[in-house]
Amino acid sequence: MYSLFFFQKIWRLCNAYSQTFRLHSSDILCFSLHLRIPI
Questions:
Q1: In a structure prediction context, what are the per-residue pLDDT tens digits for the chain, which is 39 residues long?
Q2: Do the beta carbons of residue 2 and residue 38 sit within 8 Å?
Q3: Which of 6, 8, 30, 37 lies deepest, with the highest CB count within 10 Å?
C-alpha cells in the first residue's frame, strides 16, 4: 500500500518533468503512470 507522501513525491516528479519539457505528451505520460500505480 502506497502512502500519500509517496504519491505526492511521484506526482511532483512528473510535474517537474512536464514543466521542464513543456510537452502535452508528458502530461499524458504522467497520467498513464498514475493509473498504473496501485493505491
A1: 557 777 778 778 777 766 666 555 656 666 777 677 554
A2: yes
A3: 30
Q: Among 39, 15, 20, 38, which residue's Cα sits nearest to residue 29?
A: 15
| Whether the model pTM is above 0.70 | no
7 contacts: CB under 8 Å, gap ≥ 6 = 37, 39
Alpha helices in the chain, H assignment, sequence order: 4-21, 24-36
Round to whole Å and give the CA distance between 19 and 2: 25
Is residue 38 within 8 Å of residue 3, measured between CB atoms? no
